[in-house]
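As a point of orientation, let us examine one representative protein, giving the amino acid sequence and backbone structure tokens.
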Amino acid sequence: MTNAPYPASAGTSAAGKPTSQSPASLARRILLQGRYESLTMLRNGEQLILAVVLPLLALVGLTVTPFLDGLGASRINVAVPGILALCAMSTAFTGQGIATGFDRRYGVLRFLSTTPLGRTGLIAGKVLAVLVVLCLQVMVVTLVALPLGWQPPASGWLPGLFLLVLGAAAFTALGLLVAGTVRPEATLAITNLLWILLGVLGGIVIPADRLPAVAQSIVVYLPSGALGEALREAFMFGTVDVGAAFILLAWTVLAGAAAIRWFKWN
């Protein structure tokens, strides 16, 4: 009886001779991880509701009600920047925070951090996934808002998109900080609760001028309030709120440093 040949493997040819395969570059590993993370987020029904459906419902609700009247622009022009900011918070903070928390619980983070991808590549892949999903959110919101009468100034797109990315970076850092320091169940509760509180009272959808007086002096220093005000300045008037941009940068640096210092991989 003759022995059957071993099947070809990653390092062996069908003839049994070793083959040389160069490992994928770090950039390719990050792209593949980002693709995987993006598809995972888009296939998750709960995250789609949080990232797309609820923001669109809020957009329509603010457009058909008089709540945003008297702010120097049409309802839709005031509402859309806040909805874009809400999209960034939904994906970067709540969605990524919950996903990372449960990846940590089931040992996925610990396993991936020991692969050639490494911890740096894993985090970069998550950031890339946030940016991909955020681009899709901007496209969907724009396609819905333009027929409703949204008229952003051309000069506001470049600073608006830059500030949106900066806000996403701040919320991603905060999401990773929460996901890496508390239990997954607590991450789920904290991120969802903060999504509601910041969405309603954090100056992200409703301008600070429409909030109670005691809250107005606080929300401008929150990442939600800073991002909401910065996007309204950009997409309504074509100007840059430098103060809000510095606040977002400060949140990104501080939350990122805290996440690096205290993040637990298992």
Summary: The two ends are 50 Å apart (CA to CA).
